[in-house]
Amino acid sequence: MALHQKLVPGQVLLLLRLMFWLIILLATKSTSQPTPTTGSSCLNSCGSVSIPYPFGTGPGCYYDESFHVTCNDTSTSNSGGSSTNSPKLFFPTSNVSILNISLDGGELRVEGPIARNCYNRLGKLTSNGSTNGIVSTSLLTNSEFPISATRNTFVTVGCDTLAVINGFWGRNYTAGCISLCNQLDDVVNGSCSGLGCCQMSVPEDVIDFGVAIGSLKNHTEVFDFNPCGYSFVVEQDSYNFSSADLRDFQKRETVPLVLDWSVGNLTCEQAQENVTGYACKASSHSYCVNSTNGPGYRCKCSDGFEGNPYLNDGCKDINECERSIKPCVTRCNNLPGSFSCSACPKGFKGDGTTEGTGCTPIDGSGKQSVVKLSIALGVSIGLLLLLLAGSWIYWALKKRKLIKLKEQFFQQNGGILLQQQLIHQRGSSETAKIFTAEQLEKATDNYDQSRVLGQGGYGTVYKGVLQDNKVVAIKKSKIGNQSQIEQFINEVIVLSQINHRNVVKLLGCCLETEVPLLVYEFITNGTLSDHIHDKDQYASLPWKMRLKIATETAGAIAYLHSSTSMPIIHRDIKTANILLDESYTTKVSDFGASRLVPLDQTELTTLVQGTLGYLDPEYFQTSQLTEKSDVYSFGVVLAELLTGQKAISFDREENERNLAMYFISSVKEGQLLQITDKRLVDEGNIEELNEVANIAKSCLRVNGEERPTMKEVAIELEGLMRHKSGMHPWGQDHNPLLSSEEIEYLLEPSHTSFGEVNHGDTSSTVFDSMSIQMLKPYKDGDGR
Fold first, then answer.
1. pLDDT higher than 80, residue 596
2. Which residues are known binding-site members?
3. Are residues 516 and 557 in the same domain?
4. Which end of the chain is more exposed for a tag (fewer CB within 10 A), N or C?
5. Which residues are tagged catalytic?
6. What is the pLDDT of residues 136-185, one digit of tens each?
7. Domain shared by 576 and 674, yes or no
8. Residues 245 and 138 in one domain
């Protein structure tokens, strides 16, 4: 905020104190100028800074004392003999370093000082300066060159800072601004409007300045993020305010500052009267311009010349003919300060210059050229049309080939069979949808890698957004051979009709690609494996939530086994295939290894497929796949929920690496609580933990016939949930975990119980040609 805004009495008093200290500071400035000297040895540069005349370092090297500069070799040598600091250019009577001298622009770029005041947490001044809370600084270049009014700005940085600038020479003035803020969030990077940073312009005709800086409340209220205030005059393009400057600006000692330099204090007309003292030495090849900032003048080379106009013959002719952009369309002739172009050839007219009329044919004499030009233009257009036609034919053939390839894939992947099946299912509202390849390519940004959700033994899963903004999971399935197509189509039909809230919904498929694509609903809250084992990303699940997840999962698997039109054996039940939505509702997913079981069969003979650690040992040895294989895998899931440990872990002892074996032996030895997740034990549900452990133990029996059915497991777990809620297991005065249809199904008579063995199963054999996949556990974050 500018100082002309209304100030409170305390601020006015501080402002007066700042102005008083500035007057004392600037009153001590020396106004004497040294007498010019002459000499012969002149440096062309100092470090990386060129020293053009009228500036110079030694006698006879500079125009007068105002252009006298000194090259101080501040470099030091290290043990290797190399220099660590380059020489710097200064004015002889000051410590202001010169960064650059512009001959044509008449500017000096120097290092300007920074006024600062720093306080401790108690509000005591800690920076060098007066103990009354005011810190002052001055440029004090001892030169006669004014500060550039167009290239610099006065800046104050701080959240409790008042700064005043006082300048003098051709124009004495005093101005200032206040920068305030209450918190770091108030400030805006790049803005100096008064919040954390304020700025104001610098007037013309100012040769030197002093800056005084103070604080209204000694930074006590903003100390945590701004212990210091800063004020300085800086080159406009060299500083861009950042909120980080409120804390870390102490490391900077100087800022770049631009001075306007000129010769003497006379105008061009006055200086030209004294030929000997006139600084423009390049005779007729230079001219004089008056200074726009203070008295004096500067010299420039005339048009067509370049160099140093302050030296005899310093302005050299520019050879325009050698420039990259030729000035002539004909032959170019260089002239002093200019150039000329040769005449246009016979039959053409014009001045021959590139920027002028050039050379154009004279009427009647350029007909031959026009004919040639027309022929060339016609040939070019013909070739262009031929190229366009060829490109169109190429793309048309390529598109036709792509369409045929899609049709081939569609038939090869059983598209016609699926269409026929869908016609029979048209009366059902739960039928699969056939997506086109273009729809799914658009939904996945052409299967961009950033859309990959996960990869597993049965395919790659992508996140997709359909045209109606519905988010889906798109899976590239793996099919072993074409003999599986009919089975694949049947699975698509059956799975799409599954309408269970704890089973991931299959929405449809795409058969126009080499590998069939399956489209599922998208589940957002990760897998059960993530929530159990990834303690850094997910909070621990309480026992009530774990019991709910186990109950919902058991109900979903029991539904797949017995309540669908054709029973489904999942064959890969594991925590990585159990997804959770935002309300922690269970979703059983990944049916890539699932098998449909004909209603007249209870067993299938298949090649072994599954995930190590969850694989039914009986199925592994006999290749006989039954519903009890899913029961075993679910028992491993229960063990994971109870212990919080992975199904297979090489971090455990050798005899404990397989969680199922480790769990069973621990339960038999009465060590359940020792291996149970400590957080569950601390909740105090010991009786329920024991009951669920017994269910898990029953599911993990080696002999499949001795295991309970998933229907029985679901009933037991549902009963535990009802008991925990203090209600009858099948009471209707509550919001049940299972639907009324599911409860009716579970209440049907069961063939076996946990203490009985069913020996009445019949078996028939169906061969599965899918490849053996003994998979090590992997983390499926597919989102299905």
1. no
2. 476
3. no
4. N
5. 572
6. 567 666 667 889 999 999 999 999 999 998 887 656 788 899 999 999 99
7. yes
8. yes
